[in-house]
Write a structure and sequence with these properties.
five-stranded antiparallel β-sheet; His_kinase_dom; rod-shaped; alpha+beta; 12 helices
Length: 587
């Protein structure tokens, strides 16, 4: 059984007080017992001495009166019987019994007699302890009367709980009881006065352990308990202040994790997700990341970090659930607790826009280099072509007399004209005229471009459709560049819909992170082979035998110069060019 603090204090106090009190009482009682017993033994010895003195007088009177030994013994025996004094005569080595003591039976007398006889001839008198019976203490007091060979006996017996003892010790017992009662009361008071504040302090410590760092502690004392209470009060105040600082740091860290543009994910040592911040959820696209290809890649890198036991830094190209290409930059690091590995913290960012800008810059640089090369090449080719064309024209006038030569010369002129068109395209691609950025109504540009091609659309059975919401904001671009862009795209669609079809435009605000306007140009032509898609913007690449391969390169260059992007997707029966252009800020 578990004892409370009050009993733990009270029991030792009670033992320390009651044991001495009881010890004093017991010692006092035993002292009184021994004193009364000694007094009784003294009275018995004195009684035997008085009997011996009376028998000696009787002996002297009998001798003076001339009584015989038999008469003297008779008178002695009568005296002893009359006074009820037990004993025995020693005659010729035999014992002749006198009145017996009722407390001493024959068997017990037989056992102690040898000791008495041995001692009595030496001392003449004495006492012998007997075996106690029923919480009693007994002694045999004896006396020798030598003239008559008479041994007188007296048994002294006293109970340990004798009433006379209680009479003698009643005040001592009363004082002891009163002392014990007072000791118990004082002990209870002391235990209560000590245990109550200790119990209060224990409850306060328990409350602090449960998180209540502002406990109600009203103990105001100057002793050690008060010092302990002050220490606990100071400790709780210090813990409260530290806890407030910790909460501020936690809130700050939470806000940082919540508002950072980097996704933060942590896993345990088995690779299971522990936490996700808001940015991570936005990048993954779902609350728990389930079914996200990005999450699969992130967790794969976290597992590799655990296996390799070193941090990783990678940028991976991933297709999300919508099939869009995204670039994810991932950093992983192990975290541990006292050198005991616990898991992995993963930070990742969607750097798709950054990579697109880098690709755009790379494309612009590449196109600039190609443009410079094309400008030089066009200059070097145009002059010889001009000379060759002039010479062919002269030869045509001189050789009119022979009709057989005219087709050959006309073929040479056609090839020269074809090379001239290629040089013109190269110069268009290489031209670095300044871009005049203004606020452009893109619908107006598209309708104006369509106007130039209406006859060709009708002749080739092309249906033109455009879908656009009302009140579209203007785009920030060069109007002539936009017209050239859409003209090239429309002409490209005409080439690949030889049997007619539909040219469809859709204009809408871009729902991504940038403030752009998106234009999708779709045709129902033969489509582009998957292996040709990555090359269609390359200069001189064309699937049209009669084309120069510069039209889409010029489109990409002009889109890049207007801070836009262009992408293409295709399948049999549907090719779509998607252009994004920045919106002109209002005001």
């Amino acid at each position: 059984m578990r004892l409370g603090i009050e009993k733990r204090i009270m029991l030792p106090f009670l033992l320390l007080v009651i044991i001495p009190v009881l010890s004093v009482g017991v010692v006092s009682y035993l002292g009184s017992f021994n004193h009364l017993l000694a007094n009784r033994k003294s009275m018995a010895a004195e009684e035997l001495d008085n009997t011996a003195f009376a028998l000696e007088n009787l002996y002297q009177m009998s001798t003076d009166n001339g009584l015989s030994a038999g008469d003297l013994r008779s008178k002695t025996l009568e005296f002893l019987i009359e006074n009820n004094v037990p004993g025995f005569f020693i005659q010729d080595g035999h014992l002749i019994g006198l009145p017996k003591d009722g407390s001493l039976d024959n068997e017990e007398l037989k056992n102690v007699l040898p000791t008495v006889m041995l001692d009595i001839w030496e001392q003449g008198k004495g006492e012998l302890p007997l075996e106690g019976k029923d919480f009693t203490k007994r002694y045999l007091v004896y006396r020798l009367i030598p003239g008559q060979n008479l041994v007188l006996l007296r048994t002294v017996q006293m109970d340990y709980l004798a009433p006379p003892l209680f009479e003698i010790q009643k005040y001592t017992i009363l004082v002891a009881l009163v002392g014990v009662i007072l000791a118990v009361e004082l002990t209870i008071l002391i235990a209560h006065s000590l245990s109550r504040p200790i119990r209060t302090l224990a409850n306060v410590c328990r409350d602090i352990g449960k998180g209540n760092l502002k406990p109600d502690l009203e103990i105001r004392r100057t002793d050690e308990v008060g010092i302990l209470a002050d220490s606990i009060r100071d400790m709780s105040q210090s813990l409260f202040e530290k806890n407030q600082q910790l909460l501020k740091i936690q809130r700050l860290n939470k806000e940082i994790l919540k508002n950072t543009t980097t996704g933060i994910l942590t896993t345990d040592h088995d690779g299971n997700i522990v936490t996700l911040n808001n940015t991570a959820v936005d990048i993954l696209g779902t609350e728990d990341g389930s079914g996200s290809p990005i999450l699969e890649e992130v967790l794969k890198l976290a597992t590799m970090t655990i296996e390799l036991r070193k941090p990783l830094h990678v940028i991976n190209q991933i297709r999300d659930n919508q099939g869009s290409r995204r670039y994810i930059e991932v950093n992983t690091a192990l975290f541990d607790d006292e050198m005991d590995q616990k898991g992995v913290v993963v930070s990742f960012q969607d750097v798709t826009q950054k990579r697109r800008i880098e690709e755009r810059i790379e494309t612009i640089n590449r196109l600039t280099s190609l443009g410079e090369l094309a400008a030089g090449l066009a200059h070097e080719i145009r002059n010889p072509l001009a000379g060759m064309k002039t010479s062919c024209q002269v030869l045509v006038t001189r050789m009119n007399s022979d009709p057989k030569n005219i087709p050959l010369l006309e073929g040479i002129q056609a090839e020269i004209n074809r090379l001239g068109n290629l040089v013109t395209d190269l110069l268009s691609f290489a031209r670095t005229t300044p871009t005049r950025i203004t606020a452009v109504d893109i619908q107006e540009v598209i309708y104006h471009t369509k106007f130039f091609l209406d006859k060709q659309f009708n002749n080739n059975d092309i249906t033109f459709l455009m879908h656009a919401p009302t009140n579209l904001p203007p785009v920030k671009a060069d109007k002539d560049h936009l017209q050239q862009i859409f003209l090239n795209l429309f002409l490209n669609a005409l080439k690949f819909m030889p049997g007619g079809g539909t040219l469809e435009l859709t204009i809408e605000p871009y729902l991504g992170t940038e403030n752009n306007l998106q234009v999708r140009v779709s045709d129902t032509g033969i489509g582009i082979a998957p292996e040709d898609l990555p090359k269609i913007f390359n200069p001189f690449f064309s699937t049209d035998p009669g084309g120069t391969g510069m039209g889409l390169s010029v489109v990409q260059k002009l889109v890049a110069e207007n801070e836009g992007t262009i992408e293409v997707s295709s399948k049999p029966g549907r090719t779509t060019f998607t252009i994004q252009l920045p919106i002109m800020a209002r005001g």
